[in-house]
């Protein structure tokens, strides 16, 4: 069979070699007079104005013209430190477009049916790069000592190796300043089982005995939560968390007869929509 095909190919080759390629219709040539310029949209021409505006009501909207929103309950958990139990929450919500969004962050502890400590932030978030946002706004704290208001400025984003980072500086009442650093990482043990270690460090610019704030490094919180994602939007978890007061803040806690370290077991649910 191969010999027959080879003979046919040799027989056809002289005829193919003698074909006049000038008679062949090749792809290309001049476009029609009414063809659209494929580069016109980069010259400031839009779908609403210019030579290519579509007639009638507009049907197409681009992604950066839509208003998006999201709600994430990062922590909604029951806490047990061996001596007492409490409820803790950390929830964030945002609404906006690609570059600018309004963000609300809230976290706190509920003990014996009442709000023991709470922190709420209202921020304007602006995209700096594909993975980093700047955040400007206000924060309000209640709980330990008198209530306190802050101005907030920081950055948040995704660092190399998929580490999520938040760094925020605060200016509060009576010239008090603070700095909060947070880092967390999601380790996929399987496609549904996720281990999430996290660490948080807080520092203050001056002493405030009334609120239990000491100058310098103030508090370190570290822990890990293991969750099972029944879906990407709903995942129960269990975990462990350790916190310690540092420096002058630890001295103020000792003066009040309070512990400077705390170990807590947690169980809760994480969800978003």
From TrEMBL:
Keywords recorded for this protein, A-Z: Signal
UniProt region (Disordered), positions on chain: 22-48
An annotated Gene Ontology molecular function: copper ion binding
Signal sequence region: 1-17
GO biological process assignments: intracellular copper ion homeostasis
UniProt-listed InterPro entries: Cu-R_B_prcur
One cellular component (GO) term of this entry: cell outer membrane
Protein name, as recorded: Copper resistance protein CopB
